[in-house]
């Protein structure tokens, strides 16, 4: 299974003050399937602690830290956890972690709820947006006391990006609320980037659809265009689903009195961004529908042109075929068969009967 990383600027449960209390710690649970022991990777900062389970052990540093109270992590990130790890988290924080099946439920009451003071928030996050098969990964945020627990079975780009940012700037994870809103902002930023790239791709597709026939390959070009339009539509649909989940999460958080003033201000900005990106996603969905209809219309026109050519050819060769059929009959009394000029006259009639319809069609503009 994949490793689980616990990022936590650790601090005492009773004192969130400065000094050595803001040391950054990274815990890694898991590893190989044969060894479920907990390994600790300690960030290179003065006074860093290795946190394993409920114990905290001071690591050697230039300035020893004297801990007055047990320390608790700010962020516990569970990536594809085992049953043992989930049981350890449930025992450690006194909560019941939702199962993977429960995370997939779409009822609002199953995704956003408050249980004994712990907030459970499940959202769908866009994953593998750059691939040909984008997906939505379900992520559960659990805000319990002063710790944020994230439960996920995929590794979307926003989480990777935020983890790198926390490694560079530990102050971004100063509190559980800061980590929660930092992750939400990263998810929204990712959705914005995806929508911008999709809009750019659709502009290129629009130029392909309405390009002159000489500038494109008919059959293969249309097949590729339809695939790209379908991918853009699939991507925008999954992005809208993620935005809807984030919007509901924002409404749920706005009703929580535990949020501080600065957290509510960040939530308001995130909500505005979500509304703005949703409007852009709606525009992209309409553009996808327009391009799909236009592409199918272009295909229909090309097919009609092909059918028209065959229809004209059939109409042009019908009179010569009729003449040839008449003189191909085996009747005894056919005066033209003994006529010296019968053969060239029949050929001339067939050519004339073919040229006249073509000239008429050309004059009418049908060719």
TrEMBL record:
Gene3D superfamilies: CorA soluble domain-like (3.30.460.20), Magnesium transport protein CorA, transmembrane region (1.20.58.340). It holds the Pfam family CorA. SUPFAM superfamilies: CorA soluble domain-like, Magnesium transport protein CorA, transmembrane region. It comes from the Bacteria. One of its GO terms (cellular component) is plasma membrane. This is Magnesium transport protein CorA. It is found in: Cell inner membrane; Membrane. The lineage of its organism: Bacteria, Pseudomonadati, Pseudomonadota, Alphaproteobacteria, Rhodospirillales. One of its GO terms (molecular function) is nickel cation transmembrane transporter activity. It comes from Thalassospira lohafexi. Keywords: Cell inner membrane, Cell membrane, Ion transport, Magnesium, Membrane, Transmembrane, Transmembrane helix, Transport. The chain crosses the membrane at residues 306-329, 341-361. It is a multi-pass membrane protein. PANTHER family: MAGNESIUM TRANSPORT PROTEIN CORA. It catalyses: Mg(2+)(in) = Mg(2+)(out). Belongs to the CorA metal ion transporter (MIT) (TC 1.A.35) family. Mediates influx of magnesium ions. InterPro entries: CorA_cytoplasmic_dom (IPR045861), CorA_MIT (IPR050829), CorA_TM1_TM2 (IPR045863), Mg/Co-transport_prot_CorA (IPR004488), MgTranspt_CorA/ZnTranspt_ZntB (IPR002523). Residues 1-69 are annotated as: Disordered. Residues 21-31 have a biased composition (Polar residues).
């Amino acid at each position: 299974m994949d490793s689980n990383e616990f990022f936590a600027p650790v601090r005492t449960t009773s004192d969130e003050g400065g000094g050595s209390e803001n040391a950054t710690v990274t815990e890694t649970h898991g590893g190989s399937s044969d060894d479920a022991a907990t390994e600790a990777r300690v960030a290179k900062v003065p006074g860093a602690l290795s946190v394993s389970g409920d114990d905290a052990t001071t690591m050697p540093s230039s300035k020893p830290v004297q801990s007055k109270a047990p320390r608790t992590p700010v962020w516990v990130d569970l990536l594809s956890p085992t049953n043992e790890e989930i049981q350890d988290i449930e025992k450690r924080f006194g909560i019941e972690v939702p199962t993977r099946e429960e995370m997939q439920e779409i009822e609002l009451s199953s995704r956003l709820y408050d249980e004994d003071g712990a907030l459970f928030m499940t959202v769908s996050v866009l994953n593998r947006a750059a691939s040909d098969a984008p997906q939505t990964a379900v992520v559960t945020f659990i805000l319990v006391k002063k710790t944020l627990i994230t439960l996920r079975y995929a590794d979307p780009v926003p989480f990777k990006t935020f983890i790198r940012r926390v490694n560079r700037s530990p102050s971004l994870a100063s509190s559980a609320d800061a980590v929660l809103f930092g992750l939400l902002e990263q998810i929204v930023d990712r959705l914005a980037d995806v929508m911008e790239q999709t809009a750019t791709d659709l502009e290129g597709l629009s130029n392909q659809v309405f390009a002159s026939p000489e500038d494109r390959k008919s059959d293969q070009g249309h097949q590729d265009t339809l695939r790209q339009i379908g991918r853009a539509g699939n991507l925008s649909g999954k992005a809208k689903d993620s935005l809807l989940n984030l919007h509901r999460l924002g409404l749920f958080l706005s009703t929580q009195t535990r949020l501080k003033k600065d957290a509510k201000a960040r939530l308001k900005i995130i909500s505005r961004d979500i509304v703005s990106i949703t409007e852009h996603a709606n525009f992209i969905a309409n553009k996808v529908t327009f391009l799909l209809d236009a592409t199918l219309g272009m295909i229909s026109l090309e097919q009609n042109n092909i059918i028209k050519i065959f229809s004209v050819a059939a109409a042009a060769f019908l009179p010569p075929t009729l003449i040839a059929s008449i003189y191909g009959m085996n009747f005894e009394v056919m005066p033209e068969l003994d006529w010296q000029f019968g053969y060239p006259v029949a050929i001339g009639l067939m050519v004339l009967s073919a040229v006249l319809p073509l000239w008429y069609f050309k004059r009418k503009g049908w060719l």
